[in-house]
Amino acid sequence: MIPVIVSRKHVTEPFQVQLNNCPFYIKFDLVTVFCDWIPRSIFGKCRAVCMYLRMIFAAVYLCLFSTQAKEADVIFVDQVSHCVPILRLLSNARILFYCHYPDQLLSKPGSTLKSFYRLPLDKFEEYSTGRAHKVHFLKYNFSRYIFFQILVNSEFTLRVFRETFKTLNNVKVDVLYPGMSIKNMI
After folding, report:
1. CATH class of domain segment(s) 2-185
2. For the chain, which residues make up each domain, given as ranges?
3. What's the N-to-C CA distance of the chain in angstroms?
């Protein structure tokens, strides 16, 4: 999301970035932070549940209290898909999901108790990822449409996505490489 925020001068359509956590160095006028009161973990544990709850509360807040969300054509969900069903339920906008890497593969294996903890989270991750809308954009010369449902950040992630989310084999997934501006990094 940082490249999107930094490159906002190139965007002709109005947009708003709403986050549940924002490092101090990217606070801009178009960034709204909410639901930061939900902890990141409970005594160093349950990080996934806390992250998912933050996203779900953020989605509810966005749909019920944000005027920009009520007028939005597209809501771009980055990284955590657990809020997608809530956004579909409470918003008229099309929901586009950008997958960096399946969260369930980032979790280290653990005890039997952790397996029981992860099972519903992992199943819901697959379900919620698949709930993203098909979103169409006009391509370059406005002569044809491109349809996206889910975007991933590399061919590698696309392969991992297909291997992990077996029930989503019929879903259109495209690669959108993250943009970088060297000028802003120097």
Report:
1. alpha beta
2. 2-185
3. 19
